[in-house]
Amino acid sequence: MADEFILETHGLTKEFAGFFAVRDVNLKVKRGTIHALIGPNGAGKTTCFNLLTKFLSPSAGQILYNGRDITALAPADVARQGLVRSFQISAVFPHLTALENVRVALQRQHGASFDFWRSKNVLDQYNRRAEELLEDVGLSEFTQTPAVEMPYGRKRALEIATTLALDPEMMLLDEPMAGMGHEDIDKIAALIKRISAKYTILMVEHNLSVVSNLSDIITVLTRGKVLAEGSYADLTKDPRVKEAYLGAGHD
Question: Is pTM, for the whole model, over 0.85?
C-alpha cells in the first residue's frame, strides 16, 4: 500500500486542554496526485497541516510517509526524507535577489548553510541550478531582482522555488493563494498544476475555484473530523458538505 499512498494518517488527534482541534483523522494521499484539505473556519485544517509537517506533536495517532512511521520525527528530519512544506525555508530574504534566495536554499539542501567563502566554481554550480528552478516557476526575468521589489504573486512563486530547491518528493502547500488577486491566482494555479507532474501535492486552500480546478481528491474537515472525501463534483452533491461548508457562505 505504501507504493500507492505516499502519506497516511491513522487516528490522528490533537487535544488542547480538553478541546479536540483534530480528532481521529484518517487520511490517505495517493502518490502523484493533488490532494486538497478544505473546510470552514475552525475545522482543524491548520492544526492537521501542522501535525503532518511536525510543527505540532499529535496527542494520539500515527503518521506514515512512504510506509515509514514519522510520527516522532522532527520537522527537519521529515524534510530530509522529501516531505517539505512550502515556505518552510522562511525565507524569502527581502534584500537578496531571486537568484540569491534560491541559491541559499540549494546550499542548505546540500548541507552547507552559507558557503560565501567557497570557490567561485562551487557558487556558480548553485547559480546554474537556481536559474533552472527560477525558469521552472516562471521567474527568469526576475533573476537579479531583489525579492522586496517583486510583485506579491511573484514572491509566492519564489517561495515555491526555494521549496523545490530542497528536492522534495511531496510538497505541502498552506493556502498558496492567500492574499492574491485574480491574475496572480491564475499564475500560481498554473504553476502548481505544472509542478504536480513531478511532485505529490497536499494543499490547504480556501479558494474553491482553485480547489475544483486543481484537485484530484478533496478531504473535507469539520470540527476536527473528516466529514467527506472525493472529487469536487461528488462533494458538491453531498448534503452534509453543503450544510457544513459549501452552503455555509464560506469562500
Answer: yes
Give me the sheet containing 68-69, strands edge to edge: 19-30, 5-16, 60-65, 68-69
The residue whose grid cell reads 476536527 is: 224
Q: How many CA atoms lie within 13 A of 169 on its CB side?
A: 14
Domain count, the chain: 2
- Average pLDDT across each block of 10 residues of the chain; the chain has 251 residues. List them in order: 87 96 97 95 91 94 97 91 71 88 82 53 80 94 96 90 91 89 91 94 93 96 95 92 64 40
Looking at residue 142, its amino acid is F
Q: Are 217 and 35 in contact (CB under 8 A)?
A: yes
Residue 23 belongs to what domain range? 1-89+168-251
In the three-class reduction of DSSP (H, G, I as helix; E, B as strand; rest coil), residue 1 is classed as coil
Per-residue pLDDT tens for 48-59?
Answer: 989 998 889 999
Q: How far apart are CA 117 and CA 136, in angstroms?
A: 28
Q: Are residues 85 and 194 in the same domain?
A: yes
Of the residues 110, 130, 165, which one is the last residue of a structural domain? 165
Q: Measured between alpha carbons, how far is 175 from 184 in angstroms, rounded to an integer?
A: 13
**Residue after which a domain boundary falls, among 165, 200, 231:** 165
- Are 30 and 199 in contact by the 8 Å Cβ rule? The answer is no
pLDDT at position 108: 73
195 with 100, same domain: the answer is no
Within this chain, do residues 85 and 190 fall inside the same structural domain, yes or no? yes
